[in-house]
Amino acid sequence: MVDLTQYLWIVWLVFVVVCVIIEVLTLEFTFMMVAAGSLIGGLGTNLLGAEWWVQILAAAVISGLLLFTIRPMLLKLLHRGDEPALTNVDALRGMAGRVTTGFSETTGFVKLANGETWTARLAPEHETLTLAEGDRVVVTRIDGATAEVAPRERSETP
Predict the structure, then answer these.
(1) Residue 84: DSSP 8-state
(2) What pLDDT score was predicted for residue 38?
(3) What percent of the chain has pLDDT over 90?
(4) In this predicted structure, what is the pLDDT of residue 154?
(5) Which of 49, 65, 85, 136 is the most buried if burial means most Cβ atoms within 10 Å?
(6) In 3D, which of 78, 133, 126 has the Cα closest to residue 103?
(7) Are strands 117-122 and 107-112 parallel, antiparallel or unpaired?
């Protein structure tokens, strides 16, 4: 009769490989910690000749320790310096542009640095100014489909 526990090391290796494959697909360090715990605790104690239940217990304890100690540090290190990228109209605030059609009263058209042409109006604090074609502006806010702009200071770089 064959003792299947002598082939348990193969089960540990297969389990570690499966965890690594899942980790590559998820990229959250969870299955990597389980794989490391299984490799160190499960396969390591198997090679030392421990009973099967000791192997499972060691793998579970080491995996748990790795999950709650190393994984948070790795995630913090991975996401360090991440600032959410501005999208949609939030990304337009502060963008430079040029007046394409002179402003009549307080409205006109501007072409922004990203190539989009927007209907624009002067910001309330600059309503007394007049803007001509070619003047540089900066977007102060977006109100619906209208960009609110202010003249760009001459001291700023183009």
Answers:
(1) P
(2) 97
(3) 57
(4) 56
(5) 136
(6) 133
(7) antiparallel
C-alpha span between 101 and 110 (Å, rounded): 7
Q: What is the pTM of this model?
A: 0.56
136-143 and 96-104 strand pairing: antiparallel
C-alpha distances in angstroms, 127 versus 84, 107, 115? 33, 10, 25
| Token pair in block for residue 58 | 């060691």
Work out the percent of the chain whose per-residue pLDDT is above 70: 97
What 3-state class would DSSP assign to 134?
coil
On the 0-12 / 13-18 / 19+ scale of CB atoms within 10 A, 56 is middle
Most confident of 27-41, 99-113, 136-150: 27-41
Identify any residues that bridge with 121 across adjacent strands, giving them in sequence order: 107, 148
Are the C-beta atoms of 116 and 91 separated by less than 8 Å? Answer: no
Contact indicator for 113, 97 with CB cutoff of 8 Å: yes
Higher pLDDT, 12 or 89: 12
35 close to 9: Cβ distance less than 8 angstroms: no
